[in-house]
């Protein structure tokens, strides 16, 4: 702890502080007194990360010329103009993101309040008092009525932060404010990715619905042909019933997909926050293009790219600073209350000569017995710091797992889409052969029925696989911290207070 000796104020009357100088002397004392911080030195915990992602060689992950995913704007990543318009609307109207921004403003206000606690509160006030004293208690034995008018400047309960309690609480509020800002950024990244995911789900449902409708029309046409053959005696009643089964199953698919598409559209509108009109033309899933070749980089880069990891570390720093405040509670707390002004029994003589008055009331509170409250508060602060360490490490591990899962699925999904396309071609060829065999009387209509059913299933599966591949790329983009750069370039976040970079480790 640093200490500083206060020099006596020069005065003609050595025992009395001059009337017009006490407040200035107190302010000077507060500026000269420098306390010490009892907050432990912050050290960033060792990150529980592997040297490289599964299936990615460390040497391949190091590419100095590669652009970081966190620096790729969402307009550069998503080429669909309709999706871009929806994301832009969501960034303006989504209620969750708006609430996250308001949480930042709230945390900033709390930090400003903590900062203000370190400065004295000076005010100007006046009072008038009229009091009657009965003769039984009066020194003269006669009843009297006294009047007193006062005007002055007061300094109320200013705490001298010798042991850094207020400074530690200010550090806590600052770290929580910065953590809230990082949480807002993480919410924006999640929002951009979620809008894209829900949009792709809506597009997939729309394409599946259109496919089901086309299939229904085709099966109705096939049913009419079978009915004509049945009426002509060229087809059995079983063939007619099987054709009707295809029609009814297609109707079921159309009804189910109509419901799914409507619900997906409602989910998209709710996520965006409004119903956007005059949207650009939608593109099919087969025409959707995103930057699929995203460089994963090294796992250690997640510490700087992911806002949720930075937010968890800010919370850890807040818990560390809270230990300093808990330690300071064991030491004396000194507060100063003072005032200077004028007082008179007559209002007309309030500012006359020889009416000056002043007061000086220092107070020292030293904890002696508190039933273990301070010790328990310190132990609680230390436990909360340990919890924050665990949460920080868990956030890192979750981020690593998200990136690893997306990388593992990337190559597998590319192969799955290709295989699904080949399967669709094979099923289409099979249906063509089955219909030729049926027309030639070589095969039964059951063979055609199975071929048409499996062709429809293959078409639906291809749409779902394409959606899954696009969604996986979006998940990798979000997991690597993408979806923030362009928005912050247009809407700068509130300027954060200066932070001690040495304390960040």
Topology of this protein?
Elements: H1 22-32, H2 58-61, H3 74-77, H4 81-93, H5 95-116, E1 122-133, E2 144-160, H6 165-231, H7 237-272, H8 302-305, H9 307-328, E3 333-344, E4 356-365, H10 373-439, H11 445-479, H12 485-490
Antiparallel strand pairs: 1-2, 2-3, 3-4
Keywords:
Outer membrane efflux proteins (OEP), alpha+beta, 505 residues, disordered C terminus, 4 strands, single chain
H/E order of the elements? HHHHHEEHHHHEEHHH
Tally of alpha and pi helices: 12
Mean pLDDT: 83
Shape: elongated
CATH topology grouping of the largest domain: Outer membrane efflux proteins (OEP)
What number of domains?
2
Q: Which architecture name of the largest domain does CATH use?
A: Up-down Bundle
Provide the spatial order of strands within the biggest beta sheet. Answer: 1-2-3-4
Question: Would you mind describing this structure in some detail?
Answer:
With 505 residues, the chain is of the alpha+beta class. The protein folds into 2 domains: 37-118 and 163-332 and 370-490, Outer membrane efflux proteins (OEP) (Up-down Bundle); 121-134 and 142-160 and 333-366, Outer membrane efflux proteins (OEP), CATH 2.20.200.10. It is 58% helix and 10% strand. The chain has 12 helices and 4 strands. It has a 4-stranded antiparallel sheet, covered by helices on one side. Helix 5 (95-116) packs antiparallel against helix 6, helix 6 (165-231) packs antiparallel against helix 9 and helix 9 (307-328) packs antiparallel against helix 10. It is elongated. The model is unreliable at 1-34, 487-496 and 499-505 (pLDDT under 50).
